[in-house]
Amino acid sequence: MISAVTLLMLVFALYLPSALQSAPAQEPARVDPTQPAAVKPDYRKLQKGEEAVEGLLQRVECPYGRAVVFTMRAGKNVERFESPQLADVDYIAYTPTFKGPMTCGGRGKRDLVRLTWKKAGNTRRVVALEFLPAKKAD
User: Computed over its alpha carbons, how large is the radius of gyration of the chain?
Assistant: First the structure.
């Protein structure tokens, strides 16, 4: 026989608001692989105050107790952007080579990405990271 306390705990667990439950790892939005490849990705629309830069994602550093740092090469420059957590960034994949979820560490093959950011104080805060198809050699 189930005690009243156990029954109450079960009912509470079933009706606990989803916002309080732990969120699963964020899977990136994806293009439909059954459809023909697009000539150009349908980029996420920039919101007020946002800017975007395209380049090669080299590394994602996740130091304990500090902001996540995204390092990328944009042209001849190495740029750094931050986010409080990996989960605070929207990940969008236009290529089947990015499987997700996003992880910390070096990016061996250096993914081609479009990184959207906005100014937050003195920080360039990452809003979205779009994984792009590799560019074809001419």
Answer: 19
